[in-house]
Fold these 2 entries.
Entry 1:
Amino acid sequence: LRTIDWDDGAIVMVDQTALPDRLVTLRIEAVEDLVAAIGRLAVRGAPALEAAGALGVALAARGERDPGRVRALAARLAAARPTAVNLERGVRRALARLDDGPDAVRDEALALLAEDEARNRAIGRRGAAFLADLGLERPRVLTHCNTGALATVGWGTALGIVRWLHAAGRLGMVYATETRPLLQGSRLTAWELEDMGAEYRLVVDGAAAAIVARGLVDVVLVGADRIAANGDVANKIGTYALALAAARHGIPMVVAAPESTIDPATSAGTAIAIEVRPDAEVLRCGGVSVAPRGAAALNLAFDVTPADLVTALVTERRVLRPAAGERPVPGEDPR
Ligand code: MRU
């Protein structure tokens, strides 16, 4: 099962808001519905958003004869969420084939989908080998948010490394943070770990540093939504705190992402747009109010981990050491 796919002129996707209770698929036939699905996180995770962007342009090109109208829909799609650069990447890639007709746009999107799973497997293999190089033959992993098959077309990035380790009989233990406010860790990552049959413990976000301090974790393994040219990493809110804990306790902080998450146009993390989501996501949990009436929230969906706290960046092509001064995009460091 692919998280997101094309079926006879429509996009089909797992509705991630229904998990873990129900595995429901959505059929989307209009770009406006896709924009809404992205906004409510029915599809989420940077690589899955890249696929959604490309498939959305295929949908637009199929339904509209006027190229100007297709481009306008594509722009709406690219702006549906601001932080993950992959969304606009997917949109731009498919849009580049618009002059060749709707079938060419669809084929480009389908090529992207096929590449996604292949590159994730490459990340898994490379990441597992890198951890062995660090002497971590059977690592105990702390992970955040969901970076698994559900965050991609298939297999996963950081959780793809976990999947690889598990398949090789090399996985120690996984500590998965629940990832408030939308619980991608407890709803989605735990669901995938259950499915894998991996040994894991779900922990509240606030417990992560203590678990690291207790010596229960060998490596922090997370994904990314946008990686600046200098190696700064935007990822789910709480990632920066994990990086600080990892640095304090001398364990590696490893970021796994496809090359398409690296944004040469963003020089440093300070230039990354951080999505601010509705207060209600913080003020309520599971449909129940968890704050007094009138309370206000600050719901930052992402944070930025500076490059000097990122021990390694694993992509489908390379392992890079940002903390040692290696930049994903060569050039002058603006800081
Ligand atoms: O708000 P989300 O669920 O889209 O946030 C997802 C993340 O932060 C992931 O860690 C990131 O997109 C990498 S997914 C392989």
Note: The pocket of MRU is lined by residues 41, 44-47, 84, 145, 147, 151-152, 157, 184, 223-225, 235-236, 301 (CB under 6 Å).
Entry 2:
Amino acid sequence: MAFLQRMQEALPSRHEVKRRRWVFVPYDRLNDRTGPLARLKADEAGIILLESERKGRNRPYHKKKVVVVLSNLRHFALEQLARGVAVLYRHGPESYGEQLLRLQREYALPPIQLALPAERELREDLSLAQKDGLRLDYVEDDAWVSTREDWVRVFGEPQRETPRGGGRESGRQYLMERFYRYMRKKTGLLMKNGKFAGGKLSFDEQNRRRYKGEVRVPRRPSFPPDDITREVIDMLSHNGIETIGTFEGFDLPVTAKDCAAYWRFALEQLLPFFGPYEDAMSAEEPMLFHSAISALMNIGRLLPGEVVADVQAAYEDKRVPLASAEGFIRQIIGWREFMRHIHDVTDGFRTLTQNPDPPGNLTANEYSHLLVKERNRAAPDLPAMPSALNAHLPLPPAYWGVRSGMFCLDTAVGQVLEQGWTHHILRLMVLSNLATLCGFSPRELTDWFWVTYVDAYDWVVESNVLGMATFSDGGLTATKPYVSGAAYIHRMSDYCGRCALNPKQATGPGSCPFTALYWRFLERHEKVLGGNQRMLMPYTTLHRKTDQERAALRERAERAVEQLQRGEVVD
Ligand code: SF4
């Protein structure tokens, strides 16, 4: 039977609706172990689950991303029905807020409970409906490992005043390490007698081995589409909502049981080797030992607190070595929670100085003023467009699958368009590194990551791309830009041997453009970055280069940018 028909038949009676306490569970909180649902007995709880076509029309998401969200949402509905929870399930063209308001009126529901949504976009959607009469009862979202108080304890209250003409948080710096140090102590994870296990906070320097096939990468379990997933795919194939990528090969877990089984596999088989190869890139083994659970964690199927507790237990049982356990835990209670707070305290980067892509004859500064004026007047929800390095070139066709001839870039893009996922080093040191070096628009890059990655939601993608990856926030989240020449990719991957370009040659035809782009980047941004202590060494090396060397590097870099912009093969 079709899923929505099943939901229709499982509708509670009016009497039953009245008897129960109603909770809205959004698409990214699909569990009954956190939020208001966790505090209710199954036979007194009712949940509202919604599919919004408006959300799908906001941007053309990757097909696999929409399937993993909707199929998990539908399976979650059935799982909750099976344990005795009443379910009101709706699919509609309206926003979440509009659908909730309609349901509240239809059933005369009292204020609907929900955990404060993780996505700013959903918070905005609901607050619009609240203006029209929707009544909600928010509680703190305990799916996170940290709270707003934790952030304030480490960094103090977010800045309220505008310093020297900048945005509210402009000029500040938040270091993940400080936050992570605090979180390790707070949670007691990898702590021994009040000290960090192994005598230090981070084992990052042990996590930089290149992969040469010495350890076999275990085969991942596959979860082929069941009837419900096939129905979702069929719906998406016919509803006229624009998507990208492919449904082909969809095999992600969509039930609570399969999500848990996938995590058990990752913990037992992948985590022991995760640490040493965390930063390695391999053409043969694109996923290496990465758990790739972010898509499931970011919809609430796996909970970060439970996942890190499992890793702690595996470390104590000597099933996972310290460097791997620490590297993984740092990603969860360090980076993941840190990024969520950064997004929160900057209101999705809107409180930073906006230095967006200047249209027509306006300078960036003029446009920035215009934008701020417009924002304050009529458009409170324009996307954040900080760009401390004033990068404004459009994202080139290579990011949408047009062959560039740069093996690392084509491999990363191919993987994303097919799977909706690559591991973090391809995101940071190939896709974002190239965009930052070339001066592609950080906003466009952010939107690209947002639609193409199965695990991207506003709180994580804007923080990672506008913040850490492109230095658009001017150093709020990173002490220096994450940029490198060809040497890093050559050292950490097996890509360069398969590339027509030469990583050891910096200028002239056939040279790898990364190196020339790197020096040109330093040259162009010397005013902003020249005084940065962490950039001292590269600037010293740049200053030792002759005028001819610098001119040749500039020429090589500019030719590569032009070729990329025209959608040509870089040669
Ligand atoms: Fe990438 Fe350059 Fe290596 Fe080619 S040679 S794979 S472009 S880093």
Note: The two ends are 55 Å apart (CA to CA).
